[in-house]
Design goal:
By secondary structure, the protein is of the alpha/beta class. 38% of the residues lie in helices and 9% in strands. The chain has eleven helices and seven strands.
């Protein structure tokens, strides 16, 4: 399934890959499309209270993702993917196949393989725009896309339309708060991964936080003062950023679904602060 920019009003749940290009304008779904998508939304297992986010009742990873979609009125989930390497289309296809296989393995362990149908693997694939793109360039495009994406791809219900609904959609779902990029190194790490278990996986992707901004100079100075330093600590530059938190990190490609689940369950800033590791370390869930 090929989707040119935002010109498809209705994005049906499908196990295929949705290839996105950044050039086309967004459109708003019709009332008929909206109603049909609302009727077809997946529902979690009986007995799961999706409306109590702080319930102590044990839920599985898949049930949490289900509940997140239900609370937000969504029918799609999953991080969108940015392709930034174009050395080999065959290797890229193999990379996506392996990444999708890891998604399927994670959900199958939870007896929820059908949940993969609601993650169409939305991929931004445009060499003229994204080849060798930096995290900052991807973040800018991602945030622009997120301004309208919940309406055109989720089929936002009429009574939830408008700026307020977009804001709830954006900040209620990890899909519109973080994204993934796959560069040459990440692609090679995935297709060359020969581990027998996800615990030993060496493959990784880059997880980019949409809300990240450089820490203001006055905060850095205050932090230095509190630690008894005369000036802020300077880290090795990563894409020009010399602060500790550069706004993106590497995560295991075998744990992408787990990270999506965690960012849906926990406060984003807290989880990022606790989990973030600077390049080139690969962050693990365990």
């Amino acid at each position: 399934m090929v989707i040119r920019g935002n010109d498809e009003a209705s994005l049906p749940p499908s196990p295929s890959t949705a290839i996105m290009t950044p050039s086309s304008p967004a459109s708003t779904p019709s009332l008929a499309d909206t109603t049909e998508r609302a009727d077809n939304r997946r529902r979690p297992a009986d007995g799961v209270d999706c409306w109590n986010e702080y319930s102590t009742k044990h839920t599985t990873l898949a049930q949490d993702i289900d509940c997140g979609m239900l609370r937000n009125g969504h029918c799609l989930w999953g991080f969108v993917i940015y392709r930034t390497t174009y050395t080999s289309h065959l290797d890229w296809d193999q990379c996506l196949h392996r990444l999708r296989h890891q998604h399927a393995e994670t959900l199958a362990f939870d007896h929820a393989a059908d949940l993969l149908e609601s993650n169409p693997f939305t991929v931004f694939d445009d060499a003229t725009r994204f080849e060798n793109a930096t995290a900052a360039e991807i973040r800018q495009h991602f945030n622009e896309w997120c301004n309208t994406a919940p309406m055109f791809e989720q089929g936002t219900l009429p009574h939830r339309s408008g700026v307020g609904a977009i804001r709830r959609d954006r900040y209620g779902s990890p899909r519109y708060r973080l994204c993934i990029s796959i560069d040459e190194g990440a692609m090679r790490s995935i297709i060359n991964d020969d581990s027998d278990s996800w615990l030993d996986s060496k493959g990784y992707v880059n997880l980019i936080r949409g809300a990240w901004r450089p820490q203001p100079e006055e905060e850095l100075q205050e932090e230095a003062r509190l630690y008894g330093r005369s000036s802020p600590k300077m880290w090795e530059a990563v894409e020009g950023v010399t602060q500790e938190d550069v706004g993106w990190c590497r995560i295991s490609y075998a744990e992408v679904v787990m990270w999506y689940h965690l960012f849906g369950r926990m406060h984003e800033g807290d989880l990022w602060g606790r989990s973030f590791r600077r390049w080139p370390e690969v962050v693990r869930c365990w």
